[in-house]
Design goal:
The chain is mainly α. The protein is about 45% helix and about 10% strand. The chain has 13 helices and seven strands. Strands 3-5-4 form a three-stranded mixed β-sheet. The chain has a two-stranded parallel sheet with strand order 1-2.
Length: about 240
């Protein structure tokens, strides 16, 4: 559970009468354990809002990668579009159809913060989403309610609300999306490999099967150098089995 989403639950409570839905998109097979439980507890205890689980029923990250024969890249994040954004948008549209009292008005709240990256720092706190989802009578916006908050403010807000942050942060993870993400740091990959050995094995074997790497090749003296997960993490599945 991203700590930002925990705070979003509190912010959404004030919108209950107008928008009445909180949606959580999970990429099957690669998420962090207890994330869904944390999301459910936050939605029920903090905002008293229904939780709609959004997922792609036809593929997950592993099956998608195997079919494509390569991992997605930072420039073409098919995992985000196919496994998170599109399933969530689909469920929002269904919810609107089933609840005409909202008159087609949608505000998608995302827990992105300026401090997280230079790209996110440039994001506008409120933008229209109608260009992609506009139909007659529908108003759709994307709002970043905690865009200006620092990480310290995030932790303080969670603690002040009497909640607990996701346990993965106490293991040492610096960010929490998928366990093995194309944008993961070396440290986060090592922690994930240590605590989710079976999933780590699946990713290592998938890299070997398609001869492609989760982490994009880095250039060394102008030549792209592929680095497979065991090389990056220093954790060999064969050595682990032998032990």
């Amino acid at each position: 559970m991203n700590p930002n989403r925990t705070i979003l639950g509190r912010r959404l409570a004030g919108l209950r009468g107008q928008y009445g839905v909180t949606a959580f998109a999970a990429a099957a097979a690669s998420g962090t354990p207890q994330t869904m439980m944390t999301a459910t507890e936050t939605g029920e205890r903090v905002a008293d809002l229904p939780l709609i689980v959004c997922k792609n029923n036809h593929k997950d990250f592993v099956s998608m990668t195997r079919y494509r024969g390569r991992f997605t890249t930072t420039k073409n994040r098919q995992c985000t579009s196919d496994l998170k954004r599109d399933p969530q948008d689909r469920e929002v549209r269904r919810y609107l159809d089933a609840n005409p009292r909202f008159r087609g008005k949608v505000v998608t709240c995302l827990g992105l913060r300026a401090q997280e990256s230079s790209g996110r720092a440039k994001a506008k706190p409120l933008v229209e989403y109608n260009r992609e989802h506009g139909v007659a009578g529908r108003e759709w916006y994307v709002w970043l309610p905690i865009h200006a908050m620092t990480l310290e403010e995030v932790w303080a807000t969670i603690e002040g609300a009497g909640q607990k942050r996701h346990y993965a942060y106490d293991l040492g993870m610096t960010r929490l999306s998928c366990c093995f993400c194309i944008m993961s740091s070396v440290g986060d990959l090592r922690i994930a490999a240590k605590h989710r050995p079976e999933l780590y094995r699946e990713y290592v074997e998938l890299e070997r099967e398609i001869d492609n790497t989760l982490i994009m090749p880095r250039k060394k003296k102008g030549v792209a150098e592929k680095r497979f997960l065991p090389e990056i993490t220093g954790i060999s599945i064969e050595e682990r089995d032998a032990a």
